[in-house]
Amino acid sequence: MAETHRHYVDGEWISGEGDETFTSENPASGETLGEFHRGTPADVDRAVDAASEAFEEWRELSRIDRAEYLWDVYHALKERTDELGEIVTRECGKEISEGKADVVEAAHMVEWAAGDARHPKGDIVPSEIAAKDAYMRRKPRGVTGCITPWNFPVAIPYWHMAVALVEGNTVVFKPAEQTPKCAHVVAEMFADAGLPDGVFNMVQGFGDAGNAIVESDDVDTVLFTGSAEVGHGIAESVAADPGKRVACEMGGKNAVVVTDEADLDVAVHAAVMSSFKTTGQRCVSAERLVVHADVYDEFKARFAEAAAEVAVGDPLNEETFMGPLVEAGHHEKVRSYNELARDEGVNVLVDRTDLDAAEIPDGHEDGHWIGPFVYEADADADLRCTHEEVFGPHVALLEYEGGIERAVEIQNDTNYGLAGAVISEDYRQINYYRDNAEIGLAYGNLPCIGAEVQLPFGGVKKSGNGYPSAREVIEAVTDRTAWTLNNSKDIEMAQGLSAEVTTGDDD
Ligand code: UN1
């Protein structure tokens, strides 16, 4: 029998305190991919202790020395892209080019963080006093807890951890329970890079392990990417502790706006990519298409045709566009939103909730299959289906009349504010959208998915308070010191404040 995969704590692979294990299953075939020890809060505490212990020595290395370890990880990611990409596809069900892109994105993030180690860091700041040097220095905060989702099981852990480590923090990683095999490989890469014991730790498991990170007094920063429900709970629990910092990146109810003079080839292509890539399971996926009345009928016909035809199937097959949903519970949720939309009285245009038996690949009858669900709804109606995040290939067409102001009003009619796109040939409409859409990631004549690591990544409103990418992670995992040094023997103060110490004898 295959070995049960272990946690990685203090430089060792350990089984942990608990007796429970869990398995990882391929969502396309039901095949078991491995068995894993389920981490307990006690295992998390042990990992946090190891990370706290390792912090003093790790922070004393130069940034450049710390980055050297990351270069080994970078080369491993480059060398193992195909192998690891296939593991991603087998474990979370996204089609194979997406599986590989996940690993490539991880390599990019590690490259950014390790390369950044040789760049100037901090600011030299002017002083009113000529003899003073003033500058801003950064210090690592300590132990960083990283709680990551299953839809980017390799990229997002590295978004969090690469920068946290280069900046001098130590890490406790709690990956999503749906993708423990990917997480195991991530941990192997850190183990192989020979980081000092305790600098990187991983505990596999569920929400109780994640909560133990959030609640630990010895975790200084929590980086979370995942659902709004869990993220808001984390933000609330951390708010009670002013010493702890949290950066959460959560969901969206993202929209693509198609204006009256848009190029409809671009519009349909961008909308299909935005709504159906990753089977709609990206936090940046579009579930609303806001389309001008002048082009509505033509766009609707073309988009519905594309949605009816898009290839659903075995994600290991390069011809597939959409793989399965990640797990049974999620499948149930997406189906129930499709039903809810019908109950709310929308006009359904394409319903591939139940695929034809012929569409399901042989031997994959147990997969969590679903196809596109496309409908028209009234943009002003207060419907749950057009306001709540589904996280699946569930998309509403919302028609608008009038100018771009009206389209942006519809775009902003959501509590979320993550991503969006405008499809237009008119720079004035694009600029209006750019300045007024309440989102953190905005695209023109592109899908609203596909950010790159060197850009900030994150949203406004209910979508989060964290930008877990590159420079923005540095803000979360470091504290700043405004440092001022006097080069003179005389003390001179800013703002003309007198530095003279007067005594009663002065006159
Ligand atoms: C997510 O959907 O959770 O911009 C992250 C993108 C990817 C990251 C998405 N680079 O689509």
Give a structural overview:
This protein has 507 residues and is α/β, with parallel strands linked by helices. The protein folds into 2 domains: 216 residues, 3-Layer(aba) Sandwich (Aldehyde Dehydrogenase, Chain A, domain 1), CATH 3.40.605; 191 residues, Aldehyde Dehydrogenase, Chain A, domain 2 (3-Layer(aba) Sandwich), CATH 3.40.309.10. The chain is 37% helix and 20% strand. The chain is built from 14 helices and 21 strands. The strands form 6 sheets. Strands 14-15-16-13-12-18-19 form a 7-stranded mixed beta sheet, sandwiched between helices. Helix 3 crosses helix 4, helix 5 packs across helix 14 and helix 9 packs across helix 10. The N and C termini lie far apart (93 Å). The model has no long low-confidence stretch (mean pLDDT 96). It binds 2-aminohexanedioic acid. 2-aminohexanedioic acid binds next to loops.
What is the distance, rounded to the nearest whole angstrom, between the alpha carbons of the first and last residues? 93 Å
Summed over residues and divided by their number, the pLDDT gives a mean of 96
Give the % helix: 25-40%
Number of helices, counting only DSSP H or I runs of 4 residues or more: 14
